Amino acid sequence: MNWRLLRRIIGGTIGIIGVLSVLLAVWFWRVLAESVADLEGGITLSALQAPVEIKRDSYGVPTVIARNRLDLARALGFMHGQGRFFQMDIIRRSGAGELSELTGNVALPIDLSHRVHRFRARANALLAQMPEEHRKLIEAYAEGVNAGLSALSHKPFEYSLLRAEPIPWRPADSLLAIYAMYFELQDSSGWTQRRKALAEKALGPDLANFLYPRGEPGDAALDGSILPEPRTPERAAAPLISTPASPPPLPNGSNAFAVSGAKTSSGRAIVANDMHLPLRVPNIWYRARLLVQQSEKVALDLNGVTLPGVPLLVAGSNGKVAWGLTNSHIATGDAIRLDPVPDDPGAYLTPNGPLSLSIVTERVCPAGGPCQDLQIECSIWGPVVAHEADGTRIVWRWTAHDTNAIDFRGLLNLESASTVRELFDAAHLAGVPQQNLVAVDREGHAGWTIIGQIPVRVGLDDRPNSWADGRRGWQGYVSPNEVPEVLDPVDGIIWSANNRLVGGAALALLGDGGYSSAARAQKIRDDLKAEGHVTEHDLLSIQLDVQASALEPWQKLLVKLLEVRRDNFSLAMLNYVKNWGEAAATDSVGYRLVRSFEEEAVRLIYGGFGGAIKALAYPDAGPLTPRRAEWPSLRLLTERPDHLVPAPFQSWNEVMDALYDRVAERVRNEAGGDLSQFTWGRRNHSDIHHPLARGLPAIGLLTDPPDVPIPGDTLLPRVGAPGYGSTERFVVSPGHEGDGIFEMPVGEASNPLSPYFLAGHSDWLEGRASPFMPESPRWTLVLKPGKPQ
Q: Would you say the pTM of this structure is higher than 0.90?
């Protein structure tokens, strides 16, 4: 063999690869550089009626000064289109069930589940019947988006990586962005109700109601209402079957709380909001100050966060009122069990007799793969979303399917509201995913209500029902004057953390869509009550609270378990657990041991009872563990009823031994058996990525912030989990925005070569109070009317 020749070939190959790598890096750097948003100079937009100024501070936060509302929408669209178009594309495709057309088969399961709801067709139909004023607004926004995209020297870098071309923004896409939030925030398959019915069938109603409770001790409702605690069942209705319990559903929620003027020394009402969602690059929100200024008069002054894809302020202040949002978890849908017609497999019973299911075909075409036809069965109440193991069709009747699911009338009225009363009146006209709205005004008032439309549900509960006999169903929507409200409570405090907030007739009206555990709400309420007269910084300290009193019963239970063990490893664990600090601090070993014990207990309990449930479900069964799983699990472990030992165990002593083994196994697997390394921060880290970075790790080196330990937990006011947490934090008193506080992870920019990429991220990580208002401008861009050159 000619070794000299072989070395020359290998050396030449390595050299070629090196040159190609350099050329590729240079090409990609150029793509990044040419797709950075314009920050200075002047750009002509033909649709503008008057010049618009865009002034950005060092964080990249824009102050937009327009002469009218349509130009303001165009300018906001321009900025979104330049800085966030790929994100917007993902959002609209998620709403339409068209993600796989861009990303390939990896997104096909999402598309198939989303396409069932046919939101593309619904958006087009809704746009056609929209009032002209609202249609012009989203048309102006679309003009701005496409102008911003066209003004870039190069398409957003993500499209070069995917070898795809961006499709221009259409007015209906703004509606799809809102539909995407319905998917993000609400059940779209009826699984929560289906699970409850299957649990009753498998385990009996007593055990099902215990494992999937409507309430829990100390629900922390605003009206002080308490639901009866489910009794510990006297027996199981059937033999228990063990199954590996899936983790609880991903948390989706937020915190919003407020104090009226009676609770502050200044007499100013203050609102605090931190919305919890998956953390990504870029952030889901785009922060802005939006002004309509005519001569010397400011007709509109909005400060807060916008959703790229939509020309509206989501949460913040208009100078007279300020508001924040949390996911309400009220009943926004109902699962319907279709009664079949004998000898006619395509028909079902209705109050007006048998009807045939209509079939709609949707064509799904993933990038790089063959197209497929999705056959959607549709009833008069909605699409068939699932089948149970016995073949029963399940239809999901969802407010998102109705024409009032998106209504800009109330949303635009929010912008001009002067009082909490006016804001609530606007909220009751709005069409959005139903949220808790917490608001304050300049007069010192504070209150809570629901924004979005609430169905009038007749004869329904929290399980699938037949609607065939006409005794059950929906009868329109709740009138605005009947929507529950709490305004100016005597103690001057309002809180919301996705828990049940009202009882009695109000709860019957709102229903239960799967409320979260009350742990966060209890802590926020108690923190507010403990404080004297509060300031903005006091409310920020509550947002950042990581004190873990909610887990104290679990810590005591784990101490008892460890105290009877005498081996060195158990004694070391005991020392950490006794000195756990009662806080979700990144360096705490004790907190992680307690939390691991609680998590394994929940998984073991629901795994032990869940097999019987899963056996009755079709393969599309969702998570067996509800959001309110901690209380039933703790009750069983504390009372230890012999007849409710979860499968496959024979006694509670076996259960406790298994829990010890599972926690010890975590220590071995995740810290090599070294307890000192089993810290909360090693488990709880930021884990924030660009959507393409998991498939293309080299991209993450440019786009992703450092993955660092973060304090907090999903059960505490400071919510934090890998890839999940507070997507913004703000505290503000309307009319005093200069004293307000704002923090946002990742920052404004999506392009890593932007001069303000990741600006403000460290403020969010460290809980450092940064200003609510944009700072002094560093860059100014003028959008000018006229014919583009």
A: yes
